[in-house]
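Supplementary Note 3. Input sequence used for the single-chain structure prediction.
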Amino acid sequence: MKQRFFLFFLLFSTYHVSAQREPDRIYMEGIQSVKLFQQNDQQSVPLIRLGSSDLLELHFDDLSGTVRNFFYTYELCNADWKPALLNPFDYLKGFTQNRLTQYRMSSIAMTKYMHYQALLPERNCLPIKSGNYLLKVFLNGDTSKLAFTKRIMVVDDRVNIGARISQPFNSSQIRTHQKIQVTVGTKDLNIMSPQQQTRLVIIQNNRWSDATYNSQPSFIRGNALEYNGEQDAVFPAGKEFRWADLRSFRFESDRVERVDRTEFPHHIYIRPDLQRNDLRYAFFNDRNGWNEISTTESINPWWQGDYAKVEFTLVPSGGKPYVGKDVFLVGEMTGNQAGDSSRMEFDTEKAVYKKTLFLKQGYYSYQYLTKDIRDRLAKADPSLTEGNYWETENEYLILFYFRPFNGRHDELLGVTRLNSRNFGNGF
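The predicted structure, written as discrete structure tokens, is reproduced below.
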């Protein structure tokens, strides 16, 4: 009886701690360069197909300089990334916790760190249900010592998703925004109430904080659900992403103004970025916020890449701060979030916004967004800093969730990826 009570208490405590965690966030000091992607493709979302041999690569660095016992587990979540009320034994096959056993000390790099990596999922800890999963990495088997969390999606392909990008119906947005029209073919799926049982999620450029959650289709035609409301899934188009090529700390690329090598780690100053909302649109190939860990002077960037302090500067028009606005440096390097870790500070002496990040050698893409200081729930806006142009190339990820009436979590039954330039679907 005591053993049963202890097991129940342990499971409840684990759930209670994890329920307070946020997706895609680093909690432990010294953890850097967390990357989770489809095998051999750094510019991909962490998605696998249920029952397939798909694998994800996990990489991260620990700047403590010593080997530590990192463990990981998965937590099943609903479409809104809140924990599902299921026991881990109901959605995991094998152990509920696994130790990360593959690590290597940095070499060549002046900054000393321990690099950890893994191919997930492993056979002895395998998700067996479709849906959203939160990957949690923690120390010494103690979930309260959380290092970081990352999103993982497991899809069970049971529906067909068709999507296209069009200009919005609203005349005031026709030249500045992009609208996503979606049709979901549900096949033999038994959907009694689409409003209650289904949810469609659309993410622009992997920025989950600004995703749209449409739970109600506009039309139902037989086995097809059409999502095409006049104000639904309308995104500001923005402009092509800025970039910083930091694959070499010795060769200064076109975006590097200077490198201070008297400091350790080196301090790299990126050329000041100008406000460009009044500049005409010009297309060029960008990476839509993704970054790639890579070097031009070593064999393996994962444990031979070095670190530097990198300073970004935004020059506002007229040298004046944006009234009532916070400015954020947004890209994968800041978790694609407009939050405390990406907020820029205004330098009154130089009349510019500044942000310094500790970055590993690689290629980074980013943009500047603003939010109303008084409205923390508002979506990030590129209109003041970047400008919005309908022609901009953007990537969209479309996810379809379904919950049976007797189900206890949201199942992920369809995924497609859409590009505003080539309208390509799939992965």
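Helices lie at 2-18, 88-91, 194-197, 301-304. The first strand starts at residue 25 and ends at 26.
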